Amino acid sequence: MSEFKLCPFCGGENVGVESLGSYNGKLSWKQVWCYDCSATGNKAETENSAIESWNTRPLESALEAELLEMAEAVTSCSRTEHGEHMWVCMHCGRVTANMSDLDHYKGCPVLQARAIINRLKGG
Questions:
Q1: Which of 80, 81, 99 is nearest to 89 (CA)?
Q2: Hey, is 7 helix, strand or coil?
């Protein structure tokens, strides 16, 4: 494992694993560091454990799952009798035939949820 999530504090990509001093000469601890803001992850015995710990974000994962569930519940897509896509907001009931016409949905939670999901995924 060598892929790091962005720093949860500054959003920086400049992170890596550092070896820390040993205890009684037996163990060299590993810890992920953000070189942009000096944030650190938990100490671990192995590099992979340090990276896994850094990449574990329970609150972020729970929020993403909740937002995805909300997005799936609020929006549906079907086809008209002519085969065109028809997007229906199950929250407010608005309909559009073109996904790019969703400007009138700006107050709808599904678009806000998708925007947050895209930001969380770095998209």
A1: 99
A2: coil
**Domain residue spans in the chain?**
15-56, 59-120
Evaluated on CA atoms 116, 117, 119, 120, the torsion sign reads: positive
Q: What whole-number distance in Å separates Cα of residue 28 and Cα of residue 45?
A: 7
Strand 15-22 with 28-34, pairing: antiparallel
**Segment 91-122, tens digit of pLDDT:** 566 666 655 554 545 556 666 666 677 777 76
Please tell me the pTM assigned to this model: 0.51
Please tell me the predicted confidence (pLDDT) of residue 17: 94
Query: Both tokens of residue 24?
Result: 């009684």
